[in-house]
Amino acid sequence: MPALAKAAWVAVVPTAFLMALTPGAAAIGNVDCRKVRQYFVPCAGYLFSRSAANPSVACCTSLRRLNAQSKGPVRQGVCECLKSNAASLSGLYQNHATSLSSKCGISLKTAVSFNTDCRKA
């Protein structure tokens, strides 16, 4: 899931906070960005905490589910949703966002960054 690491979101940050974030695009192509955001709720503790060394098991499980469902054009849409949302998040630790996929053992075709070309995802 190419956008996973861009976007880069556990229980330290309340779910309500994540849902209240700048909504970004409601949909990109055939992907509902609100649903994509939900997969990152268990990752909030890792993404917003400098002291978190690793994402939680729940985070990685959730992201693996999203990755398994994200094929072809859907993968590109997920990538674009995550880039859009990540750009508007205050307090997001970029190094945690970019390392999330590798920390969860998710192999991606493209480098993870806020500038990833989602067409290559």
From TrEMBL:
Pfam families reported in the protein's UniProt record: Tryp_alpha_amyl (PF00234)
Example of a GO MF term: lipid binding
CDD domains in the record: nsLTP1 (cd01960)
Gene3D superfamilies: Plant lipid-transfer and hydrophobic proteins
Start and end residues of each Bifunctional inhibitor/plant lipid transfer protein/seed storage helical domain: 33-118
Superkingdom of origin organism: Eukaryota
GO BP terms, alphabetized: lipid transport
Transport among keywords: yes
InterPro entries per the UniProt record, alphabetical: Bifun_inhib/LTP/seed_sf, Bifunc_inhib/LTP/seed_store, Plant_nsLTP
Keyword Signal appears in the UniProt entry: yes
Signal peptide: 1-27
Keyword entries, A-Z: Lipid-binding, Signal, Transport
Function per UniProt: Plant non-specific lipid-transfer proteins transfer phospholipids as well as galactolipids across membranes. May play a role in wax or cutin deposition in the cell walls of expanding epidermal cells and certain secretory tissues.
Family label: Belongs to the plant LTP family.
Protein name, entry field: Non-specific lipid-transfer protein
